[in-house]
Amino acid sequence: MRFLDIIEKKKNKLALTDEEIQFWIDGVTNDTIPDYQTSSLLMAIVLNGMDEKETAKLAEAMMNSGDVLDLSGIPGIKSDKHSTGGVGDKTSLALGAMVAACGLKVAKMSGRGLGHTGGTLDKLESIEGFNIFLTEDQFKKQVSEIGLSIIGQTGELVPADKKLYALRDVTATVNSIPLIASSIMSKKLASGSNTILLDVKYGEGAFMQTIEDAKTLANAMISIGNRLGRNTMAMITDMNQPLGNTIGNALEVEEAIETVKGNGPKDFTELCMCAGEIMLMQGKIANSKEEARKMLQEAISSGKAFEKLLQMVEYQGGNVEQIKNTKLLPQAKFVTEMKSREAGYVEHIHSQQLGILAMHLGAGRATKEDSINYAVGLRMNSKKGDKIETGDLLCTVYHDEELKQEWIENFYKTFSFTDNKVDPIPIVEEILG
Ligand code: URA
């Protein structure tokens, strides 16, 4: 097989065979196909697309490019969820505990964050001693025993994706539905769970800006999952304002704890409940949404969800005292209240900008090498649709260094106001799959 012919084929808008896709991914993994040829094929895919069969084969070939976790020794259905990422997204922390308290087995591998705030792993590491580097055996044992573990990637998962993503990043070929869908799904498939729930966010703070684009990506990922024998569903969710009230690692851990205790913000709680309903049905723990919601409500009100979170933290070596008393989590030196300079209904909150401002406080990384300050971040005291008077509290800033005037001015630009009432947008727009 000549790789040049494969590039020609895609240039001419033809579908690639399974063998051709496998040949490509083998060549990427073994470094036998040069980057300039892969870059050329990537661009042809961006321009001419891939059909569902090609996309599923690409995900499968990437999944098999490295280690694939075998969770079959753990009894029952193993479930995973994935979010395309957003500002203030601490869903895995609360949701994992909620559904595991209902009897679901959650085996989750998460990532670190780049830009905005940290990823799930960074948030977990704001708990003293929390170990995200379990061995595969420790991970499986924990999921068997308590039904919940969240760790960083073990072994070498999907090396082909690492190489392709690095090339896509520098060849203007990130933005392609088949490439994004196969990249995300190859990692989910290699993590070994039987069911996958995708939280595909749309809006200003999200990877996909519009509902339509988010749905197209979600459908592409559902098709891959189902073709490869995983029960895959997706939620299309709003990211036109930060999720919940907090942005920043320890602040988000605190909010996740409050949520599993039943005291979480409305939008974040609702997102977790909807996601929990789907996961409990995928895992055959509940037969209907109504039954699932009741189970989740009971897990919260009985304290079982909180107990499950404590158990996970204890198993992974974290300081449970910080979970019992969140004042023991890292605390910032300074707390500054940002009061509104305007009156009106909050029309828009530029979540991406707020995420970047939180990153400048130290809550996220601008480059892979940056370290994270777990204590700093923002607490939203007002959200979209709230009626605000001049001088009302908009947001509380937790910081370790003096706020610069430029930061403050940029903060005020993230809120816009209107005289007209603003209709609330549902947090979950649609469920697919
Ligand atoms: N996230 C991924 O893992 N891959 C992509 O291609 C885009 C976002």
UniProtKB/TrEMBL annotation:
EC code(s) of this entry: 2.4.2.2
Catalysed conversion reaction: thymidine + phosphate = 2-deoxy-alpha-D-ribose 1-phosphate + thymine; 2'-deoxyuridine + phosphate = 2-deoxy-alpha-D-ribose 1-phosphate + uracil; uridine + phosphate = alpha-D-ribose 1-phosphate + uracil
GO-annotated cellular components: cytosol
Family membership noted in the UniProt record: Belongs to the thymidine/pyrimidine-nucleoside phosphorylase family.
Protein name: Pyrimidine-nucleoside phosphorylase
Highest taxon, organism lineage: Bacteria
Any one GO BP annotation for this protein: pyrimidine nucleoside metabolic process
Function text: Catalyzes phosphorolysis of the pyrimidine nucleosides uridine, thymidine and 2'-deoxyuridine with the formation of the corresponding pyrimidine base and ribose-1-phosphate.
Domain Pyrimidine nucleoside phosphorylase C-terminal: 345-418
Entry-linked InterPro entries: Glycosyl_Trfase_fam3, Glycosyl_Trfase_fam3_N_dom, Glycosyl_Trfase_fam3_N_dom_sf, Nuc_phospho_transferase, PYNP-like_C_sf, PYNP_C, Pyrmidine_PPas_bac/euk, Pyrmidine_PPase_CS
Complex formation: Homodimer.
Keyword entries, A-Z: Glycosyltransferase, Transferase
GO molecular function: 1,4-alpha-oligoglucan phosphorylase activity; thymidine phosphorylase activity
EC class (word): transferase
